[in-house]
């Protein structure tokens, strides 16, 4: 693996890992033992019927886990979606009102309002492209010659169909030796996806796209037009498990947005029911989504075989491929995990300055990876592909493995969101984190970003001693023993960070968050003059509401 200079400032990652580990261990050894309980928001364990503290859950995704967690803290569930006096709000669908009435520093709110920068196909593609441009400029500086992750090494070649020149480029380059996959920008569960293999299919797509563009109704009301789409090079020879295609769902957790505290979490592998045949026209063998598999009459009988734990995947790859492919032992928990972490960190850095951040916002994003059959040991290239990132990832527990994995992910998410929020609020040092168990720290904004603080320490800023604080050499689970916390001098509230709108194609801002409609609504008002640059605008209006995928 080469070294990394993300954003032109990044020192070598593995050295950073060691430094960060050493520092944290030394620090932990010096710290007095204190209880973390006192840090929970008002830490109220005595239910006080009808008087809160309240929590609200919108939708059913993960609801029973979130609910038990909050009840264990003595909080009470409210069914009133307009309740403003809540401690925690976890909604599947983002709603502008939630962000308008949000009380920074007093509440926790699930989902960053503009997480679509990562979680729509066009958002992610645009962010990665812009980041690549920034990095290539930085590479011209003599001090930053080291190797950085390149987008084309982990993100399959992708074209936007809503931009004329781009789709023309795709139609020109297409030939029948390759397969492409066409996806709507903001759907999930495989909805609206199809494969493109022939010139006839390309011609049909071309005609359809043109007719939408020419339609006078859509010209007048572009927000009524079908969702924008991308075409992406189809990874034709994925690694197979007993002949079946699979992808890996992992998690990017933004536990705290002020300062950024960003983590990686393991998830699970999702397999198809049927054997993989690249030439088959049956999409259920190509799309590994559970939603696709559930359509099969065999699903109820065989559903347990469609979700594997990461340990199962690791054992299988050890047994079947270690010798034949010359892989290191536990490739899944070493090489593969580290690669996923690098990719996620890269994507986060691509949007870091554009995310709308307030203390109390947190987000859990589901990231889907595909492994190429040709995976090589000595090279990072062309082995692990990021397919997409998802807001509101599925938290269902309808299979045994999901019952094992999901509650832990949700509870640690909430624990970390609470702990980091409390520490930020009281200007306490973030590390060590008592509630960190399986999630692995990817980015610590406290030590990396410049921190203007309010109140007495307004002028106190921290210079970045390092960048990615701990994309650690992946230990098996990322598990760390809870270590005691240390209080730092309290200097009040950390300042919320507005997205950087300093230009560039990815820079965008929500027009106004106070219209009372879902943030992702297709009927979003006020899109014309205040909105993002033109090529971003359509996406703004397409993002359909979204159930866990
Ligand atoms: N470039 C690709 N090459 C090979 N397979 C792909 C590619 N892109 C997507 N797939 C397959 O199609 C499935 C659905 O694609 P994707 O995840 O991008 O869509 P989605 O509708 O957002 O699904 P979900 O949000 O439910 O995961 C993936 O899980 C994967 O199995
Ligand atoms: Mg998706
Ligand atoms: Mg997916």
UniProtKB/TrEMBL annotation:
SUPFAM superfamilies registered for this protein in UniProt: Glutathione synthetase ATP-binding domain-like
InterPro entries the UniProt entry points to: TTL/TTLL_fam (IPR004344), TTLL10 (IPR027752)
Bias (Polar residues) ranges: 512-523
Region spans: Disordered: 457-549
Pfam families noted in UniProt: TTL (PF03133)
UniProt name for this protein: Inactive polyglycylase TTLL10 isoform X3
Source taxonomy: Eukaryota, Metazoa, Chordata, Craniata, Vertebrata
